[in-house]
Design brief:
This protein has 385 residues and is mainly beta. It folds into 3 domains: 34-83 and 93-157, Lipocalin, CATH 2.40.128; 205-283; 289-385, no CATH class. Helix content is 9%, strand content 46%. The strands form 8 sheets. Strands 24, 25, 26, 27 and 28 form a 5-stranded antiparallel beta sheet that branches. Strands 1-31-30-29 form a 4-stranded antiparallel beta sheet, with no helix packed on it. Strands 2-3-4-5 form a 4-stranded antiparallel beta sheet, with no helix packed on it. A hairpin with a 7-residue loop joins strand 22 and strand 23 (285-288).
């Protein structure tokens, strides 16, 4: 009888402890565990990777985006078996498919799916706000409504497709620059709401855009002094204005520009970054990493421009003597809050047994971060401030 009472008391104590621990985890928010996890193989992911593709196109959008605060979109490409033959005057079925998986951001439940035939193994989806999204493929840009209905599109001619190099989108997705190469670089500015392209002059292939401006890095040579390092910004074809300038002989450099919102520009270096107003002036935030830590590109801002996620990597292996290249391994993902100018979330890659990620995205308000690794999609809660 005493043994039975003791066992009953122990079971009740363990149950209460479990309830207490569960309540504590929910109260403090266990950010080391994902809110939900989904294996995209359950919806058709095959880990297809192109081999020996044609030279030129560099179209690699983030495979993750939030259409809005409630919908997360994951994309991947598959190659299908084609069993029908092409007939004269009728193109055959394309074997490549771009898949969009539309998920509940809070639950991970699949809400709908859609696919597009593509001509080359490149493409993806970007958010343009208010639940709308744009599909980027080597042959077109297409705007869709939240109900997955085509609103407008911009189709590239066969000549433009053959010269296409990349699509550059603003952080909000409302503007896209189409980059062509051959015989020289040329550009078109596309407003995703109207899908009307306009030619634009950009004096370099190293640039980044906001909804209405372009930022470039330039290194002009000053006779008898050396190279000047500067970052310039302009709207349309207005005069360039300097955001950063390092004169010959001065220490350091400006870094590469990347808009994190329409008002804030990141100046990114291999082991550091700083955020500055697009009009110039004092830095909003400065972050430095160790010399053996490398900052991933691109950065991942939230749509409201108030938070920023970055990936930090380390190089492992390799031998200069044997001419063996090193490989990059993810160390952590960090989310910074621009208002409080501090880190609010850190995901330790080693602890989570993650060696690399193919996609990282913040929800529009920065309270969720989604990551994609080998077809496994996980969403983590970021503490609010």
């Amino acid at each position: 009888m005493l043994l039975i009472r003791w066992m009953f008391f122990l079971a009740v104590s363990l149950s209460l402890s479990a309830l207490s621990l569960g309540h504590e985890a929910n109260a403090v928010g266990d950010t080391s565990r994902p809110v939900w996890r989904l294996d995209l193989r359950s919806v058709g992911f095959t880990a297809f990777a192109a081999k020996g593709e044609q030279w030129g196109i560099d179209l690699r959008p983030n495979p993750l985006c939030f259409a809005d605060g409630s919908v997360l979109i994951a994309t991947f490409i598959t190659r299908e078996d084609v069993t029908t033959l092409a007939r004269r005057g009728q193109p055959g079925a394309l074997p490549l498919r771009l898949h969009g998986i539309f998920l509940g951001a809070e639950t991970g439940k699949v809400q709908s799916t859609k696919e597009w035939s593509i001509t080359r193994p490149r493409g993806g989806i970007i958010s343009v706000g208010a639940g709308e999204f744009a599909v980027l493929t080597p042959s077109m840009i297409a705007l869709y409504s939240p109900s997955l209905e085509l609103v407008k599109d911009f189709k590239l001619s066969s000549d433009e497709q053959s010269h296409l190099w990349d699509f550059h989108s603003s952080p909000t997705g409302k503007s896209i620059v189409v980059e062509y190469h051959y015989p020289e670089a040329s550009y078109q500015w596309v407003d995703t709401k109207s899908m009307l392209p306009q030619p634009i002059s950009i004096p370099t292939v190293a640039f980044h855009i906001s909804d209405d401006e372009v930022a470039i890095v330039r290194n002009p040579y000053i006779r008898s002094k050396g190279f000047l390092d500067e970052v310039l910004v302009r709207a349309a074809d207005n005069p360039w204005r300097p955001i950063c300038r390092v004169l010959p002989g001065q220490a350091g450099d400006c870094g590469d520009p990347e808009f994190v919102s329409n008002d804030v520009l990141a100046l990114v270096m291999p082991h550091a970054f700083r955020l500055v107003p697009k009009t110039g002036g004092d830095a909003i935030l400065k972050v430095s990493f160790r010399d053996d830590e490398w900052l991933g590109r691109p950065l991942h801002p939230s749509a409201d421009g108030k938070r920023l996620a970055v990936t930090v990597w380390e190089h492992k292996g390799g031998s200069a003597l044997l001419d063996i290249s090193s490989h990059s391994v993810l160390k952590r993902i960090v989310v910074y809050d621009l208002r409080d100018r501090q880190a609010v979330f850190t995901l330790d890659a080693k602890q989570q047994k993650i060696k690399h990620v193919s996609g990282v995205v913040l929800s529009p308000d920065g309270t969720l971060v989604a990551i994609l690794t080998d077809g496994i999609l996980e969403v983590y809660q970021v503490p609010p401030l």
